[in-house]
Design goal:
Strand 18 and strand 19 (471-473) form a beta hairpin. Helix content is 18%, strand content 21%. By secondary structure, it is an alpha/beta fold. The protein starts with 12 loop residues before the first strand and ends in a 29-residue tail after the last strand.
């Protein structure tokens, strides 16, 4: 007998084969740790829907029973690799089985199957699963997302012109939306004509004043997003990843990048700045100290895009106020590719209000956490160069950082500091940032005073912002400068329960593998004489239906 008080090992397999059972209790759902369930050679006439709760199940054997159908919840068994249903009375396989993208072995013989047709069920497992997957029906749209306000924030304390909404959304570039990457999703739901309609519906229905998008292909920016969003009052800029510069014209249109849109009725673009991480790496000689580290960083072609926007205050007559003796940045900015060293504080008009928007897409591979850190540091350095020396301006710093809330990237951006010994630096030397020859490094630092919008309002980051077949977690964020802005509300994000049947994203209801993030902010200028603005959290977010016809 084991005298230690360790809990018993969890049940990993359950064999009830040949036990003469006629009914399987719904309580089977409590055994959600089991990987094998054997129910063959019994008298079962049905399987309870609760079997869909066994999400760790890898092998299910219900052969030689009296089943006439399978519950649609069987499609929730996303880890199932073996399914044996031979020797029953099943006539139709539920389309939900098309979500069993890991299934490798399937026995169907000795069933009077009529659907799928004979020429399908006699083929290999992949063909059968893909057939069922592509016959999945369009599901009921997701329930409306509601606004969640920060406790204690006075939502009626700001005038409408002090309040603005920001959206951050990785839309999933069509070049990556393939069945190989997303085998759970019907091919018709991966089609760009279907997905783009839902993406545009999402953007327009939120009605954000500033929209930061990632994975926007060059062609789609020009032919879809610019003309369609212009109908709703948006103007935007786009920059592709740096590989664009090495490709032929025909291939360039498929390269994705970042873009920033804004409501032209509220803002005017004064300056845009591309942060090319390859270019920034080459410009810093200290990174050459460790050639292996340098090679890891320079081989990743991610970018950041910065836009300095000027608010358009009315002059009482509906016009835009400018100081005639002080040029706006729009007048002097020159080429968007200008070095930040050419950008001077004198270009900011003290009589105007500005906001700096930074949108980025950091490298994805979890084996390159050090690269993610350095890309974030390079971006921060460039943003700090663009700030005026004689005035504070609000900052929105958002994007897909491909980093979870327990990462060094999150800690650095949220706290303004990351020690040199942080494990995400790995074994490589990153110049003065890391420890070398026993000498302590400076780590990473910034003075932007950033705070996460969702953490500020909810006390924690969303449960997930990415839900692909192999990963669920939070990767995207909206940070804001808390000395110049207040976070008022955020748009709630779905919880994992919403994916029980859909298994993962994208799907027929969600056009991307990412969730959009939306925050509402107010300028913190200390002005108490403000008239009431209606709290946006009292306005439920209802995605507009059929805003756009499908693209042919």
């Amino acid at each position: 007998m084991d005298d230690n008080n360790d809990p018993p090992d969890p049940l990993v397999g359950l064999n009830l084969g040949g036990s003469g059972i006629t009914n399987l209790s719904p309580t089977i759902g409590i055994f959600n740790n089991i990987s094998t369930l054997i129910l063959c050679n019994n008298y079962l006439i049905r399987l309870p829907p609760e079997i869909g709760k066994l999400t760790n199940l890898q092998k299910l054997d219900v052969s030689k029973n009296r089943l006439s159908e399978l519950p649609r919840e069987i499609g929730r068994l996303r880890n199932l690799t073996e399914l044996d249903i031979h020797g029953n009375m099943i006539t139709t396989l539920p389309p939900a089985m098309g979500r069993l993208f890991r299934l490798e072995k399937l026995r169907l013989e000795y069933n009077p199957l009529t659907s799928p047709p004979y020429d399908i069920i006699t083929k290999d497992v992949r063909t059968i699963i893909y057939y069922l997957r592509d016959h999945l029906e369009t599901r009921v749209p997701l329930p409306p997302r509601t606004w969640v306000s920060k406790p204690g924030v006075q939502l009626n304390h700001h005038t409408p012109d002090q309040v603005f909404k920001v959206m951050c959304y990785n839309v999933l570039a069509q070049a990556y939306a393939t069945p190989a990457f997303y085998p759970h999703c019907p091919s018709w739901a991966l089609d760009w004509s279907y997905r783009s309609n839902l993406i545009l519906q999402e953007i327009v229905s939120v009605g954000a004043d500033i929209v930061c998008l990632q994975e926007i292909q060059t062609e789609h920016f020009e032919t879809l997003f610019v003309p369609e969003l212009a109908k709703h009052g948006y103007t935007g800029i786009h920059r592709p990843k740096s590989r664009y510069n090495t490709m032929h014209d025909e291939d360039r249109r498929f390269v994705d990048g970042c873009c920033i849109f804004w409501k032209s009725s509220r803002f005017e673009l004064n300056f845009e700045h591309l942060v090319d991480f390859v270019e920034q790496t080459m410009a810093r000689e200290y990174l050459l100290a460790d050639h292996n580290a340098w090679s890891r960083l320079i081989s990743k072609d991610n970018i950041g895009l910065v836009a300095v926007l000027e608010f358009k205050p009315t002059n009482g007559k509906g016009g835009i106020h400018h100081n005639a003796n002080f040029p706006s940045l729009h007048d002097v900015r020159g080429s968007p590719q200008r070095k930040s060293a050419d950008f001077h504080s004198e270009q900011y008009n003290p009589g105007s209000k500005y906001i700096l928007i930074c949108n980025t897409h950091i490298h994805w591979n979890p084996e390159f956490n050090d690269v993610k850190l350095m890309q974030s540091q390079l971006l921060i350095e460039e943003v700090q160069k663009l700030l005026p020396r004689n005035m504070k301006i609000p900052i929105i710093f958002c994007g897909d950082f491909n980093s979870t809330p327990d990462s060094g990237v999150w800690e650095f951006l949220q706290n303004g500091y990351l020690p040199a010994h942080h494990p995400d630096f790995g074994k490589f030397q990153w110049g003065h940032h890391t420890t070398k020859d026993g000498k302590p490094g400076s780590g990473l630092r910034h003075h932007l005073n950033l705070h996460s919008a969702y953490t500020s309002v909810n006390g924690a980051e969303p449960e997930f912002t990415n839900a692909s077949p192999l990963f669920r977690g939070c990767l995207s964020y909206i940070w804001f400068s808390q000395d110049t802005l207040k976070a008022r509300c955020v748009l709630e994000t779905p919880n994992k329960a919403i994916l029980e049947e859909d298994v993962a994203m994208p799907n027929s209801r969600s056009p991307s593998d990412h969730v959009s993030l939306v925050g509402e902010f107010a300028l913190d200028d200390g002005d108490a004489s403000r008239k009431t603005s209606m709290p946006l959290h009292q306005q439920p977010h209802h995605p507009q239906q059929r805003l756009f016809a499908r693209q042919k």
